[in-house]
Amino acid sequence: MRRQSGVTLVELLAVLAISSIILITAYSIYTTAMRVNKASIEDVNIRNETIEICNQFDKMMLNVDTIEIIGEANSEDHFTSFWAIENGVEMNTTSGEYEEIERSKVAIEINKKDLLIEGRRINSDPYSVEGSSFSLKNGGLLVNLIISDQQNNQKFEVNKFYRL
């Protein structure tokens, strides 16, 4: 008998099975890498938003000497709006004595989902500061910021203390 050359059906099926396993594994690795990359980008974005909010808040609180709560604090002494007051010293022309005067007064508030400084929104879309609050502790202002990414359902919390 003459021997026939070619590929048998069994050999063809074995190659297809091995190729399928390799392709499925490669696709699985690719999709996992894409998912991890997306999560990493979302994490970096919310951290960058937090840094930006904190930087703007730091600049505003740089020379603040005292605060005056606007409205009422809740049962845990947390509040959502206050006046940041910068005081200065000026000589009284009549008495010749130095007196403390109010130089500037800036309104800061958490209005539902936004952090407002002088009515200007600090957080950007799609980020929210809902649930954030302020409190007075140990002669300073404790800021509890909860930044939420509303599109990706991610939260990042930071506490900052400003000595007054």
Any key phrases for this structure?
164 residues, alpha+beta, five-stranded antiparallel β-sheet, 10 strands
Largest β sheet strand count, sense and barrel closure? 5 strands, antiparallel
Strand content: 35-45%
Count of DSSP helices?
Answer: 1
Instruction: Report, as a whole number of angstroms, the end-to-end distance.
Output: 102 Å
Indicate the structural class: alpha+beta
Transmembrane segments: 12-30
Keywords: Competence, Membrane, Transmembrane, Transmembrane helix
Subcellular location: Cell surface
Protein name: Prepilin-type N-terminal cleavage/methylation domain-containing protein
Structure description:
It contains 1 helix and 10 strands; from the N terminus they run αββββββββββ. By secondary structure, it is α+β, with helices and mostly antiparallel strands. It has one domain. The chain has a 5-stranded antiparallel sheet, covered by helices on one side. Strands 2, 7, 8, 9 and 10 form a 5-stranded antiparallel sheet that branches. It starts with 8 loop residues before the first helix and ends with a strand. It is found in: Cell surface. It comes from Neobacillus paridis.
Annotate the secondary structure layout.
Layout: H1 9-61, E1 66-69, E2 78-79, E3 81-91, E4 98-111, E5 114-117, E6 120-121, E7 127-128, E8 133-137, E9 140-149, E10 154-163
Organism: Neobacillus paridis
Keywords: Competence, Membrane, Transmembrane, Transmembrane helix
Protein name: Prepilin-type N-terminal cleavage/methylation domain-containing protein
